[in-house]
């Protein structure tokens, strides 16, 4: 079946611009997660959605980062006024929604901020 | 908060050699444990997982891992590696209940290079 998909696969932007990253979870998965993978920090948790609500946003690095999920499906991660330190691979994962469930990852969006 | 340590940053092996990658975690409660693999140019894929039951779990492509609760360890093993096993391997944990039981905590990863 179809896995988690993310778009775009690559995004190059200039410092100070806003970017939107999209995630389509596996159909029927109620839980959705965003992580960031960077050389210095490894894999970091950003935010978690159960349905359309985000019980925990504490992993978001700053108030320039926001995320939403609509219709219990697609999610968008928005980074405003991008900085060079935002350069990383942004990964989305989804799971059926049970506690401590297996998370299935998408291919990621590689963000480069010049 | 929980943390995960992977002992080796980069492991280089010849084909047919045996593999063991170490993983230790720090968390006082019950956890679910995972090994993910990232092949070159590909996304993270689940290799195997442990939730409960037999502490020796088998995954895809001949990999297995053993959960030793007293040592807070979940080491990954394969008796005979192949060139196609060249990848980066990540150990991850998630608390079974309570706060954060949705947040995977990853180790820094171990790069495995298999020489033909």
Topology:
The complex is a heterodimer of chains A (114) and B (116).
Chain A: E1 5-7, E2 10-13, E3 19-24, E4 31-38, E5 42-50, E6 53-56, E7 65-69, E8 75-79, E9 88-95, E10 104-105, E11 109-113
Parallel strand pairs in A: 2-11
Antiparallel strand pairs in A: 1-3, 3-8, 4-5, 4-9, 5-6, 7-8, 9-10, 9-11
Chain B: E1 3-6, E2 10-14, E3 19-21, E4 23-26, E5 31-38, E6 45-50, E7 56-58, E8 64-68, E9 73-78, E10 87-95, E11 105-106, E12 110-115
The percent of residues in helical segments of chain B reads under 10%
Helix content of chain A: under 10%
Distance between the termini of chain A: 37 Å
Give the count of helical stretches of chain B.
0
Query: Mean pLDDT of chain A, as a whole number?
Result: 94
Structural class of chain B: mainly beta
Shape of chain A: globular
How would you portray this structure in words?
Chain A is 0% helix and 52% strand. The mean pLDDT of chain A is 94. In chain A, a hairpin with a 2-residue loop joins strand 5 and strand 6. Chain A has no helices and eleven strands. With 116 residues, chain B is mostly beta strands. Helix content of chain B is 0%, strand content 53%. Chain B has strands at 3-6, 10-14, 19-21, 23-26, 31-38, 45-50, 56-58, 64-68, 73-78, 87-95, 105-106, 110-115. In chain B, strands 2, 5, 6, 10, 11 and 12 form a six-stranded mixed β-sheet that branches. The N and C termini of chain B lie far apart (41 Å). The A-B interface holds A 31, 33, 35, 42-43, 45, 48, 50, 55-56, 59, 91, 93, 99-100, 102-108 and B 31-32, 34, 36, 42-46, 49, 51, 90, 92, 94-97, 100-109.
């Amino acid at each position: 079946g179809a896995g988690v998909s993310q778009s775009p696969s690559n995004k190059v932007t200039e410092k100070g611009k806003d970017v939107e990253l999209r995630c389509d979870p596996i159909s029927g998965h109620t839980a959705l997660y965003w992580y960031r993978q960077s050389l210095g920090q490894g894999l970091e948790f950003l935010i978690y959605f159960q349905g359309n609500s985000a019980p925990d946003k504490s992993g978001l690095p700053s108030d320039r980062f926001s995320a939403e999920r609509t219709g219990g499906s697609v999610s968008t991660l928005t980074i405003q006024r991008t900085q060079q330190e935002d350069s990383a691979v942004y990964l989305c994962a989804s799971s059926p929604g049970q506690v401590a469930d297996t998370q299935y990852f998408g291919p990621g969006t590689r963000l480069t901020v010049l | 908060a929980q943390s995960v340590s992977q002992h080796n940053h980069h492991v280089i092996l010849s084909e047919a050699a045996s593999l063991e990658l170490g993983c230790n975690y720090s968390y006082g409660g019950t956890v679910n444990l995972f090994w993910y693999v990232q092949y070159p140019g590909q996304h993270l894929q689940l290799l195997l997982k442990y939730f409960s039951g037999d502490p020796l779990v088998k995954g895809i492509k001949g990999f297995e891992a053993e959960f030793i609760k007293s040592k807070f360890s979940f080491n990954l093993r394969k008796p005979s590696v192949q060139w196609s096993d060249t990848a980066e391997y990540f150990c991850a944990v998630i608390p079974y209940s309570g706060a954060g039981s949705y947040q995977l905590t990853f180790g820094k990863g171990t790069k495995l290079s298999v020489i033909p």
